Amino acid sequence: MNIPLLKEVLTDPDEFITNGQLKSLSLELLALIPMTGIEGSPLDSGDIMEVVLRAAVGTTSVNGVTENTRETPNREPVMDWLHTLEKDTMLDAVNDILALVAMTVLDRGGSRTVCIDFMDNPFHGYPEDEDEFRRMKARDGTTKCHRYCTVFVIAQGKPLTLALEPVSGDDSKADAVERVLARVETYPFGIERILIDRAAFAGELIGVLRATAPPVFPVKTGKDSLREKLSVTKSYMTEETICEGKEYEQTYPLAVNVTYHNGNRGKSGVKRTGYAAYGLEDRTPAQVATIYDKRSQIEKSYEKFREARAVTTTPSTTIRLFYVGVGFLLEQLWLVVQWGVLAQPRRGGRALPVDFTFSDAFLHGIEQELDDELGWRKRYRTNGVGLPAGYDHGLG
User: Cα separation of 201 and 193, whole Å?
Assistant: First the structure.
């Protein structure tokens, strides 16, 4: 993939980077996603991607953009173009772009710790297929969601997204993790270990993870023998077995870490956490906990991603997946520009700029540029009358 504008900015930056350049860089990435389009249409993919980008940076819908701009097509032709996206081709392109952008700031040698997570995107509306969505705890007024498996690497204090995979209704977590790891294994570095949450506490999934690298994750405490091993007042290392006597039986090293809440989140008293600590048998439970705690940074990545997610009620899983990919691509671009171009070199590592925030600086800057180019409406016709005569408005 060729990204000349990004290469120029990263290798030969001007004294300042402008909102116009940020917009151009974003569109350069989106232009790499193939879209067949409508034969004979006066539009092109650039027209469509500008609308999508404006919807993403404003956390609004395509309809919200087309209704409030003068220089964009109507919603119908935009959605017709988006419906020509081919799911597998589009997903491959998004992952390839994520990989290419991430590798601009990642060393290509050695090995790294990667973090895997499952992200739920609330679903409103009526799906094309009832089996396509998953169930989650009620959020945003729904229990339906589209689920995505994501993998990150923490580098220079940044959670860079390496790959993402949709998890359809009939997908197992093991299948989704296997697919996403297959993408990460194409990266030019090794995987030292994998950090994942309690979702990994299943024999089949543990087997998939171990085939790539030693996994580390907190355990579920439903088993009597496990609860007994966690009812202690001192940290220690031991072993435990999952799926005993079954196909996916696993005996794993168990790190029992005992700490105190000390008023954190309004809690007090003893805190006991058990970790499946493959490959860390020679470490102390406190060291295992410290290694696992690095994974908490991906929650910040999700917070940022949601600030750049176009909203929609379309039943198309492909378009929804595309919007998710756009959100992660924008966040990745912000991270790379922030560290590669704006962070000041200093002894001990670069100092990240505090004023180049994702929402207020990066997204809002792109939004302003697009509002000018797309002719965002700035005034609306009134009725010229106001409230009816004699209306008791209470304004004095």
Answer: 16
Quick check: helix, strand or coil at residue 150? Answer: strand
Distances (CA, A) of 59 to 187, 239, 272: 31, 47, 40
pTM of the complete model: 0.90
Residue 389 within a domain? no
What is the distance between the alpha carbons of residues 76 and 121, in angstroms, rounded to a whole number? Answer: 24
Residue 127 pLDDT: 67
- End-to-end, the C-alpha distance of the chain in Å comes to 64
**Residues spanned by the domain of 122:** 4-365
CB 236 within 8 A of CB 285: yes
User: Span 200-214, mean pLDDT?
Assistant: 91
In a domain, 197, yes or no: yes
Alpha carbon distances (Å) from 194 to 96, 168, 211, 278, 292: 21, 23, 11, 9, 9
The model's pLDDT over 117-136, given as tens digits with 9 standing for 90+, comes to 998 877 776 766 666 777 77
- Look up tokens 């990545």; give the residue: 301
C-alpha span between 288 and 291 (Å, rounded): 5
Whether residue 57 lies inside any domain: the answer is yes
3 state SS of 238: strand
